[in-house]
Design goal:
By secondary structure, the chain is mostly helical. Helices cover 83% and strands 0% of the residues. Helix 1 (9-41) packs antiparallel against helix 3. The protein is elongated. The two termini are 15 Å apart.
């Protein structure tokens, strides 16, 4: 029994590119909204009241957000710069890796943002546990379930 599609390497690359770009749009929107919000925090009066530790968490969060934004916009720049050069299969693989890297960086940015917000909102000792629980949830949704599905339902 044959599984999969009957398509050429170029047709497969075209299809995979379209799927990838749809996925990137979702992630880009999230990271751009979060990053835009983070950029405004330093200009508020509350920023000066943050402890040195919280200011350092903020700076790390902004840098992570900038890196996530770059990785998630990277596939668009890659496509634009190599379009028409007959390297789409290679571009799809590289864009896929950039997208995965962007998701990891988005996870780190979201984690650091949550840590900062909860530290400022409450000084309770449960904050690290709450953040760890949310990170666990993201890991389950973003990586564990997809990898389990890949392992369980593919022969590759």
């Amino acid at each position: 029994m044959r599984r999969g599609r009957n398509e050429t390497e170029e047709e497969r690359a075209d299809r995979m590119w379209q799927e990838l770009i749809q996925e990137v749009r979702v992630a880009q929107m999230g990271v751009q909204i979060l990053f835009g919000f983070l950029l405004t925090v330093v200009f508020t009066e509350k920023y000066e009241e943050l402890t040195d530790t919280d200011q350092m968490i903020y700076l790390v969060t902004v840098v992570l957000g900038a890196c996530a934004t770059g990785a998630l916009i990277g596939p668009v720049a890659l496509h634009r710069l190599v379009a028409g050069r007959r390297v789409k299969p290679q571009a799809v693989r590289l864009a896929s890796r950039l997208t995965l890297l962007g998701l990891v960086l988005l996870l780190a940015t979201t984690t650091a943002s949550l840590l900062l917000i909860l530290r400022v909102a409450t000084h309770d000792g449960f904050v690290p546990y709450l953040v760890a629980g949310v990170v666990g949830w993201y890991l389950l949704c973003w990586f564990v379930l997809p990898l389990w599905t890949r392992y369980r339902h593919t022969s590759q």
